[in-house]
Design brief:
mainly alpha
């Protein structure tokens, strides 16, 4: 590539908004050579970039897109954007934008509300004046209502907490009642079993007592029989007594 071709390439890259560093890398020339070619053609880097930025704004590009395309800082893209509007004769808009740029959307929403309501500019101004007069009072009332709302929320939270505690205690009480009912059922079962055992024991005792009564009667009869036998054995027979007397008479007779 000869010198004229390099100059043409450098000029073309300058028109595209390329920076000196990008042109030097792409065309293979030094930054001083680029500056000399630009001065010879009556253009410089800043002029080329601003022209390119305005061209992009004409194409409805946003400042972000311009900054990315031209590899420039955000403040430079915004500056060119403002200059572009001023070139279009929108100086009032630019001035208003500079004043409200940090609070843009509230004003945009206000304009939309005005358009939807059909209010005139005078009515909007009067409404804002009235609002400005009553706004502190409205703010105080709003703060008071907000405090009451917070208090009600706190009371509701306390009520919910109290109700939850009550439910928890109720559950514990029901659990305890169920446990006690199981104990009562177990005791009732034991009582029934003990009652059955007592009835059986009483029956056995009655049988035993009846058996003892029979044994006592039998023993009494046996004792009586023994006494009778003893009495019978201790009393001599009647014929023996008669013989004794007969013998005695015979002796006296002799």
């Amino acid at each position: 590539m000869d010198r004229k071709q390099k100059e043409a390439l450098v000029l073309a890259l300058l028109e595209k908004g390329k920076t000196y560093r990008e042109i030097a890398r792409e065309a293979g020339v030094s930054p001083n050579t680029i500056k000399a070619i630009a001065n010879k053609a009556g253009i410089d880097e800043s002029t080329s970039i601003s022209s390119r930025a305005f061209e992009l704004y004409v194409q409805q590009k946003s400042p972000v897109e311009v900054a990315i395309t031209l590899n420039m800082e955000a403040k430079e893209a915004i500056r060119y954007h403002q200059e572009y509007f001023m070139l279009l004769g929108l100086t009032e808009f630019t001035r208003a934008y500079l004043e409200i740029k940090d609070y843009l959307w509230p004003f945009v929403n206000l304009v939309k509300l005005v358009q939807y309501s059909g209010l005139s500019n005078g009515e909007v101004v009067a409404l804002l004046k009235i609002a400005n007069g009553y706004l502190p009072r409205v703010r105080l009332e709003y703060d008071r209502l907000q405090a009451e709302l917070n208090s009600l929320k706190a009371e509701i939270n306390n009520s919910v907490r109290t109700y939850q505690d009550f439910c928890n205690r109720n559950l514990e009480m029901n659990k305890r009642i169920n446990e006690l009912q199981l104990i009562v059922d177990e005791l009732e079962a034991r009582r029934t079993k003990l009652k059955k055992t007592t009835t059986e024991s009483n029956h056995h005792i009655a049988e035993f007592q009846e058996s003892n009564a029979e044994n006592d009667n039998l023993n009494l009869e046996m004792e009586q029989e023994v006494v009778r036998l003893i009495n019978d054995l201790s009393r001599p027979p009647s014929n023996i007594a008669i013989n004794y007397h007969s013998d005695e008479n015979d002796t006296f007779r002799s």
